[in-house]
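Help!! Second protein's tokens look totally different from the first
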Amino acid sequence: MKPDYKNWVPRGMLMSFLWIAIICFVLFAVFIITGFPRAGAANTALWIIFLALGVVFAVLTIWFFIMYRKFSYNGKRKLSKQIIEGTASYAYLPDGGKGLDVGCGSGALAIACAKRFPKGEMIGMDKWGKKYKSFSKEVCEKNAEAEGVKNTSFMQGDAVKLDFPDESFDLVVSNYVYHNIPVSDRKELLLETLRVLKKGGTFAIHDIMSNQKYGDMNAFVQKLKSMGYEHAELIDTAHGLFMTEKEAKLLGLTGSAVLYGKK
């Protein structure tokens, strides 16, 4: 049995854009050929509208198809795998320690960390839900079984308010989660995640940490240091580390970085 980490780009969304584009182009052709509802301004306006919509959704379909291929675990590029393994390379879990993956999706990062630290225990937590319905607790458990990893478990939870006491984990990791959560201050989400990290524990959180999505992250790094964190730094991953600058721009990942350090 092989693991199936799914694709970060929902296939349903890709197919929806494709079908909308096809329908718009078909309606455009109908209005041009038949002159329906009648020749003149109304007909012209309709075919212009459906032509424009067809072009927009065709472009979206192409863009999402490119992303789908880039992120596929079975494709040539395997960008998802590179990002997961890259993020896991910053993790450290001591023997007998416990780690948390916030927003584990299909379990890839939690499993990658568990494989690196077989004498520790990783917990993958996610809200899952309709937006990414291909991801679930069952998918995570099947992937762990396929990888032969037994030091992982998975549970449902909310990154906005973690159901764990302060200083519960020796490691906290996350990958491309917080930018999807509609909140006014994502730095507060980071503090909520770091709340459950033990003194001396390690954190490695990868996300699109642009000014637009997060504000001044360099100031946040300084804030962590002033709060007593032993080490904190922001590592740019969009200029050759996890992906090329061209890929980051094409896929909308500009600003990707790992917030890494030790409490």
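Here's the second one for comparison:
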Amino acid sequence: MDGIRYPRKRFAEILGLSEEELGRREAEHGIEAKDSVLPVAELSRYREIFGIRPAPLPQRRQLFLNFKGGTGKTSLSTAYSFRLAEMGYRVLLVDLDSQGHATKCIGYEGEEQPHTLFDVLVRKMPVKDVVLRTPLEELHLIPSNLRMSTIDLALMPMSGRELKLRKALEEVATDYDFVIFDAPPSFGLLNLNAIMAADDLFVPVLPDFLSFHGLKLLFETIAELEEDLDHELQQIVIVLNAYNPTTKIARAAREALETHYGEYLAKSVVRQCTKFAQASSEGIPIFAYDPTSKGAEDVQSLIDEILPRLPGGAWAMEKVG
């Protein structure tokens, strides 16, 4: 993320200003504007100086999960997290997958990081000692690497093992507006912890009929957890991803989702977008890689749809910029 740079026009847009207004405010605060591009760290500094921040929200914990792999879950969760941070919300992205893909999408190598969630849940290290602070002050990361692959075994003999993550996050309950979990496509103790800690569940699905089996299994699992462990998710949002309306099977899959899961299906659809893969390969969130891409536009649409549903979210949206 250190290499992210914004042209002045885009930088101003993120702050909700015109280029002219940006210049006036710089002059008012004695900021000498020499460069035509600004680094991502300046976004946080300017927000602080100008007092341009959304109203704080009661912390919302949101889990991106699908038992079926290859649904674009990590691309969505990292784009969603980065954009919320760009907008000025305080975001903690938690990489739960031992492959560390969310960590890589944000621009870091998991194997180079000394600590992961394993240190929090198993070794009882404070969350604040594990968090990786990015150049964008509003975005923090708990990275992941292959050491996370044994966490389910380590949690197995512990009492209250399914609540370890929820309890660990209590110490940062006022530090973040959003905690975003990017989960592996499996069910084990770690994902159980994530479900028990989450307020909202986002389920990315592809527009094909293989996705329906994974959805059925996921909903059955959630229902069992609600009954056995007395935890009810406040929102379940199915996000249709990589949608190409020109194909018959994609259109048919969307119709089937609307028929069988209409109450959970997001109105916002994320269209097929090659820029997602290109951005991920370079470790740059799509909003910094190409904010005009279909992927960026659609994730923004999803955020605009979800924020008003949250406590205080509609009012906070009006205050962004």
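Reply: Different proteins will give different token patterns, so don't panic. The domain at 60-319 is CATH 3.40.50.300 (Rossmann fold).
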